Amino acid sequence: MLRLNPDLVCRRPFPHLFQRDVLDTTAYHALRDEFPSPEWFPAGHDHGRRDFSYAQYGPSRFDDFIAQSAAWGDLFGYVRSPQAFDDVTGLFRPAMDEYGYLDGPLDRPDFSLSIAESGYTVRVHHDRRYHIAQFLLYFVDDEVIRGGDVCLYEPSAPKALADYERCPEEGTLRASRTYRPEGNSALVWLNTGDSYHGVTRLEGVRRFLYVAFNSASHSAWPLGRHTEVVVGDNRSPYRSGRDFIQTVRPANSPA
After folding, report:
1. Which of 44, 140, 148, 228 is 20 to 30 A from 114, alpha carbon to alpha carbon?
2. Digit-coded pLDDT (tens) for 198-215
């Protein structure tokens, strides 16, 4: 369903792809037209962003929404299929070997529809270690006035992967690439230890889908000394079969 072009994969600052017209035009317009209205979203927001998710952030009316939207039902079914995982990770297989991907059973994917509004911004970070790869798919027309760009970062000075922190201090990174959200565009990236990204302050409205493919283990990657291992997540009931949250740190990691 995603028309991903491996010739567009970039290795710097970490393996990623930005592509326009990633969906068939008819499919994109159906998804955009059926994007859930704010009434579907749970009350409250996180720093200007509201999420309507496949159990990622607790109970919601997600099943009801998917049942009444053929377009979103098709995309959701695709994301949960082995084909989607192969389509995305197939872009990055050589890099996955290079970064030491820990192959194993897969867990359910994250699938989160979001509406971000003026003031929304995201500090620089990399995603949880049980994520293998993820993508953002944008549903925007002219509602983004300025900002809302995803910036990719690289260390100001070379570091060993074991020394990378999830949320590094300011001044230790420099901006490498910036991608502006556009309708029917996608940013796809491998969740490496150095996959640092953030979002510039938004003015306007940005609608998007976030998908992450997950390992059933606590980590999809070798752990650095600063890396926090999360087994389960107190905001992610779909990672059931475990305690809601159990945090383990390597012995030589700071508390």
Report:
1. 228
2. 999 999 999 999 999 988
Whole-number Å distance between alpha carbons of 214 and 51: 19
Residues 6-221, CATH architecture: Sandwich (2.60)
Q: What is the model's pLDDT at position 239? A: 46
Q: Tokens representing 15?
A: 């393996």
Contact 23, 32 (CB under 8 A): no
Q: Is the Cβ–Cβ distance between 131 and 233 less than 8 Å?
A: no
Tell me what the pLDDT averaged over the chain comes to.
85
Torsion 93-94-98-99 (CA) sign: negative
**Residue 8 vs residues 97, 150, 175, 189: alpha-carbon distances, Å:** 19, 17, 20, 12
Q: Tell the burial category of 225 from Cβ atoms under 10 Å away from its Cβ (0-12, 13-18, 19+).
A: middle
Q: What is the pLDDT of residue 228?
A: 66
How far apart (Å, rounded) are the C-alpha atoms in residues 92 and 96? 6
As given in the structure block, the two tokens for residue 124 are: 């620089």
- pLDDT band (50, 70, 90) for residue 166: confident
**Neighbouring C-alpha atoms within 13 Å toward the C-beta of 204:** 14
Taking alpha carbons only, the member of 216, 221, 220 closest to residue 239 is 216
The vertex-87 CA angle with 49 and 62, nearest 5°, equals 35
d(CA 111, CA 233): 15
**Which amino acid would we find at residue 185?**
S
**Model confidence at 85: pLDDT above 50:** yes
